[in-house]
Structures are given as C-alpha cells and as structure tokens.
Amino acid sequence: MVMKRFFTQYLYDWKLRKKKKPLIVRGARQVGKTYVIEEFGNKNFAQVIKVNFEETPDLKRFFTTNNVIQIIQDLELYFGKKITLSDTLLFLDEIQMCPEAIVSLRYFYEKMPDLHIIAAGSLLDHTLNDLQYSMPVGRVEFAYMYPMCFYEFLIAAGEKQLVDFLNNFTLQQKISSPIHQKLMKLVRLYFFIGGMPEAVAAYIESKSLIDVERIHESIIKSLEFDFAKYSTRSQQITMTKLLNFIPRVCGQKFKYVNFSNSIRSEAIRKSLDLLRMSRLVHLVKNTKATSVPLEHEITDRVFKTIFFDIGLSNHILKLRLSDIGVMGLNNEGGLAEQFVGQELLCQPPYFIENNIYYWTREKRNAAAEIDYVVQKGNRIIPIEVKAGKTGTLKSLQIFVAEKNLNKAIRINADLPSIVQVKTSIKLEKGMKEVNFKLISLPFYLVNEFGRFLN
Which domains are assigned to the chain? Predict the structure, then answer.
C-alpha cells in the first residue's frame, strides 16, 4: 500500500527550487524517513543512488576525502551507474554512522550545487551534537519528520473524502451528528494505533489490533536496543525507566523526585536529554507568554513531557487495543494533551523545528494553567484541551485577562462552535472585565485552528 505523507510535498518544492542545498531530514527511528525519500526519488528522478552507511559501512571510505569529484567517481564504479546532476538523487541514509559524509555536504554544495542530495538519520542529533569536524553551517538545510498525523492516518484508512471536507470546513457550517461521531471514533482509534507507519499499515491491511500491538512491542524494543549506541550502561537503565514513566505523566509538570528519589537529578536530566535528542520525547516548555517570541521567556527548569507517538505511549501503558471500545480510561486528559501536542509538533513548515509551550501560574489559592500556548505570526494564542465536552474555563479566562487577548482556542470532544465570552475575573489587582472570542474545536480539527483564527 502507498502511504500519502504531507512531507513529500516539501521534497517536491525543494527539488524545484533554483537555489537549493543538500537536505538533511531529521526524525525519530521508524517514522518513515527512508520510505518517503525513496518513494519521492523513484517518482521524480531517473535513478536513485542510495548509500546506507549502516548496511554498507565499507562505503564510509569513499568519504574520507573532501574531493567530491572523487567521491562521485567511486560511487559510480561501485553502483555501476552514471551519476548525472539533473537526473540522479543521491540519498545518504543513516548518515549519523559516517560523520565525514556530513562534512562532505559542504563541498558538494560548493563544487556540485546542481546535484540533488538528501541525507537522513534516526540518531542524527547525537552525531551533530558531538561532531568533531567542521559542521557545514550555511551549506545544508534541515527538514523535520514526525509520525503520521491524524489526517495522514485518515487518508491511509481510505477516508480522504473526510480530510477534504475538514480542509474546507468553515465555522459557519454544521457537522451532522453521525459525521461527528464517526470522526470521533476515528480519533479514538488513532489514539491507540498512533502514527508509526508500520503500525498503521498493519491495521489497514489486516484490521487486526493484535497485529498492531505486536508491531508496537517490536518498535519499543528496537528503540531500547538503540540506547546502547549513544549512552553508558547506567544511562541506558535510566532511559528505559524514563521511557516507561513519561507516558504516565503526560500533561503533568515533570518532577525529578516523582520519577526517582534514588537517581541524582543531573543523571535524570542527562538521560532525558538523550531521549530528546533521539526525538523520542518532546519537552513542553513553560513560558511566561507576555510577548513573542515565546522561546525568549521560557523557564528552563519547568516543563512537561510528551511521547513522540500516542500509539506507542498507550502500548507502554499496557492498554490493550482489543478493549478500546468498552474501557473507561483514568488518563483521558493525558491522552487528549498527547494527541494535541503531537498534532501541533507536526505542523508545517517542515524546515522549522517546532517547539511547544505551556503557561502556568503556581500561586496558593490562585493556581492556573494553559495546556498549550502557540505563536501565530505575532499573536499569542492559548489552547485549552478538555477530554470531554465540558470543563471549566477559569484558567483560560485568567490568561486572556492578564495578557489582554481577544481570541482563545478550546479543543474538546464536542461539535465546533464559536462564542463571545463576556465575564469578570478576579486578578491580583482586583476584578477585570473579560471579553474574548472562544473557538471550540473537536479533536479532529486541531490541524485547522490556525485557519480559523483568521
């Protein structure tokens, strides 16, 4: 089966640009980088020369020189193919295994700027962080891939018509109850299958949730085996524990003492950072959110964590897929936040590494928290996530009042709506009038929130 990935369009645009640089695609293991690049190459080039440094480590020897003419000649002799600038895609896969190849990208850009080169690697961030050679700054460009988003999942499931409907939906329209219920069932199914392409393909082909569970377990074990490639034995033990801990605390402030009171905080921090560089864990950074950019007002030691894939997260929690239709979950709120966070991370443009933020005020008898805060242009937009159809808006009202905003987003399980909220809220300096537009969207419309702001 062919899986449509929106990232492919970015590769088309990259190919057509007159001035392009070698492209390095970054993302966690098994999110589909190799599949997407090869499919793109086979459809758009006369030939694809693929060098996989993990499968053929001997080819590293070709890159011990910065003479790119020599490298191309060696590759032509090895593969028995003539490499032409306009008709060949040179694909350097698992490039983290050959740091010299990363350095060579600079010389390819300078000496052979018309050659199309894409590199990818699952543990690439570790190599880039420890690169002993001259990093080709300004000579390469990066793009970021994530697990399949909900829309890509719908298309794979044969529901492209639903995606087209959602892409063109306006808040002046109505969504009928049967369509809403169908979409919410698909959202719930995505909660447990997730966006790992192999798991999605298994479900689409067999409709067997047991097959999905088996693949989830295999992926988790392969991720744990990877730990040995970039960490000490002690760190491997801590990272495995973190891998099992983080899905349980999604939506909560990460506290070292809650994870372990026997492991030093610094050791936990380093292991967590290794998981972050492997793109298995994403930090939801705390921001004061008084102005843009949000990154300039973060509190480094205050953060939440989300896992990189909601399906794998639920597998770690040992939630059986065969029971999803009848079970009630005590972590519905955490699942809802995981889903929304994952959707926010994979938003285009793909040449920007997305960060996600939240806001909190920890004051006695006046605590408040906004699940996500995003920046759209120069605007700050709060996003409140509710697992069900109802829930208090007190934190949202406090945030809007303190920041003098006129729009806010709520993600929940109800039908879409837009209302003007007018009320009074008690702040430190007394009562304040609040008047803002609340855009409520069901989970399946998270991808559209930016469009609705306009």
Answer: 7-144 (3.40.50.300), 150-454 (no CATH)
